[in-house]
Amino acid sequence: SIDCSGDSRMCCRKEFFVDFKEIGWEDWIIQPEGYHMNYCVGLCPLHMAGIPGLAASFHTAVLNLIKANNADAAVDSCCVPTQRRPLSLLYYDRDSNIVKTDIPNMIVDACGCT
Amino acid sequence: APRGAWCPACGLAALASSAQRDVLVALAKQSILSKLRLPDRPNVTQPVSRGTLLTALRRMRARRLDTAGSPGTARGGTVPHAQPGMAGQEYEILSFAESGSSTSRSVRLHFRFSWELAGSTEILQATLYLFWVSPSSGTHPVTVRLLQPDPTAPNTTTAIETRLEVQRAGWATLDVSRAVRSLVSQGTPRLTVELEVAGGWGSPLLAGHGDSHWPFVVTQARARTSHRLQRR
């Protein structure tokens, strides 16, 4: 996976941090101090489709079939998360109880073309 | 998307950088609230002191290590583990006691639980944590009653009654899973715990507001997963 740099327009992972203090949420979210949201952005030309991470997926197989059978119908693929991890939160709920949970698939660790 | 153009999902890149930031922050807020099943951000009216919270988290961790170290031997049993990939999102909910009426021989504590999760989660385990004061020498009996509101009457009914022998000061735990499950099934958000001592000992608890020995209940819950199979 590639992290975005200034000059590249290819599919990459852009880092984005939401500071809970800046958005006024530090009073109800005890931990962590912010959310590393991150997202995927960039071009996915046809030759990049299926790399990295999704080579064996059902969707890649369908796309390859379309490409093989009809070149005119080929579509560009999309730059999407290929690896994600949970966000662990400790927060107050509406009844002032303290809740600890892991929200799955919230942090994008890697991006790739579908 | 047209060939050579950005994907529809990457339309964000076309926005000005300040607008992009606003969109992303709004998305982040919406995403967190929806995953926590909260319609809006909670307004915290009674924050718990840092000392109280840290003590509770340490006790939870110590108990988890104890339970992991000796499977099947902990009182109240171990938390069942789901098969990998089948488990729903898990929650640990800390509910601190609100003090109720007390006499020279008894103390009442009220716990209000989180009911945003009640309809769609199963209670795996609930444990009551109490810190006993240091009594004089010998053992001291304490009767613990878990009281639930009676749906057919204005009073409460005793759901569970247990007699404990306190031998020394320190933290003690009591499995209250059955009572909490019963509350959840009835849709009653409140559990009352009554502690009664035999006499001459006074309050069995070392507790006051802002105190790091304040009683609490830890509820472990898991989101229910649908096992329905879909054919494509």
What do you see in this structure?
The complex is a heterodimer of chains A (114) and B (232). Helix content of chain A is 11%, strand content 39%. Chain A is mainly beta and 114 residues long. The longest helix of chain A has 12 residues. Chain B is α+β, with helices and mostly antiparallel strands and 232 residues long. About 6% of the residues of chain B have low confidence. Classes of the chains: A mainly beta (114), B alpha+beta (232). Strand 7 of chain A pairs antiparallel with strand 1 of chain B.
Poorly predicted runs of 5 or more residues of chain B: 71-85
- Series of secondary-structure elements of chain B, N-terminal to C-terminal: HHEEEEEEEHEE
Overall outline of chain B:
elongated
Low-pLDDT regions of chain A: none
Number of strands of chain A: 7
Helix content percent band of chain A: 10-25%
| Main beta sheet of chain B | 5 strands, antiparallel
Helical stretch count of chain A? Answer: 1
Q: Greatest chain-chain interface?
A: A-B, 41 and 46 residues
Main structural class of chain A: mainly beta
Hey, roughly how much beta strand do the residues of chain A contain?
A: 35-45%
Radius of gyration of chain B, in angstroms, nearest whole number: 23 Å
Structural class of chain B: alpha+beta
Output the strand order for the largest sheet of chain A. Answer: 3-6-7
> What shape does the CA trace of chain A take?
elongated
Rounded to the nearest angstrom, the radius of gyration of chain A is 19 Å
Widest beta sheet: strand line-up of chain B? 2-3-8-5-6
- How far apart the termini of chain A lie comes to 13 Å
Specify the oligomeric state. heterodimer
- Give the helices and strands of chain A as they follow along the chain: EEEEEHEE
